[in-house]
Amino acid sequence: MAQATCSSCGTSWPAGYQFCGRCGSSMQVSEPLPFIPPPPMTPPPVSGGLLFDDAPGAQISYPDASVVRFVVLRGPVLEGTAFDLPEGRVHIGRTGELAMSADSLMAPRHAAIERFGEQVKIDDIAGPGGCFLRIREPTTVLSGEVIFAGEQYLLVRSGQDIPTDPASAYAPPETFGTPLPAPRLHVTQLLAGGLPGRVVSTDRDQLTIGREGCDLSFPQDRFLSGRHLRIDLLTDGGLKLTDVGSLNGTFVRITQAPLALNRGDEILVGSTLLRLEIRPAAEA
Known about the structure:
Layout: E1 3-5, E2 12-14, E3 46-47, E4 50-52, E5 59-61, E6 67-74, E7 82-84, E8 88-93, E9 98-99, E10 111-116, E11 119-123, E12 131-134, E13 139-141, E14 145-149, E15 152-158, E16 185-190, E17 196-202, E18 206-210, E19 216-217, E20 229-233, E21 239-243, E22 250-253, E23 259-261, E24 266-269, E25 272-279
Parallel strand pairs: 8-9, 18-19
Antiparallel strand pairs: 1-2, 3-4, 4-5, 6-7, 6-25, 8-10, 10-11, 11-23, 12-22, 12-24, 13-21, 14-15, 14-22, 15-16, 16-17, 18-20, 20-21, 24-25
């Protein structure tokens, strides 16, 4: 008769016994379980800049690691100086987070800049001189706005908005002088301290400004092109500014904030000219 040996005490018993008669241990020999390898360890899936957490279907978004900064083009701050823009809100001014103490025309906190990812906007312009944005295409402005070209600040107005002083009660009944004109376009140069400088008026619907050969020329301005910009009077009394291919551009004062800024935009803050550079994460 076939025998089976107890694995615990070594006593032999007939093969049909289920338990050892001496120690009571089981006489059944179990088959070894097949080996199942553990699942491979893989990092969490990444798709389109989204990382997935432990909760099913939950997604956590992280902003791109872009490089966003202002670079100085000209002014009292060293040309080529770069100011990196952190995420969130910072101030630009003589004592702001983006401090440019050498620019005496800047207020301590001249304007606020907000950034999220590659989105940048200018907000809360508190500096008395304001901020100016370089135009990329013909742009409509209201009569009475201030523009900047070369080194000139210019007040542009349609004829209907030119102030006229009422006749004095003490003026003699007859005086000599050229009759008051009826201009359609009027431009006044603004000097330091807000004093008026050169003035030009025209009864036409178009006026040109540049370094030479224009309705209003500034031969000593090294930053003006020969024919720099053109102003056209619109039927509704507004004015259209067209940069006619100048090298250094034409700027309009920012009157509505917040204003979104785009890659390559140039802004004038105080007397410092800045260009916004945005390098996406893929290019960084």
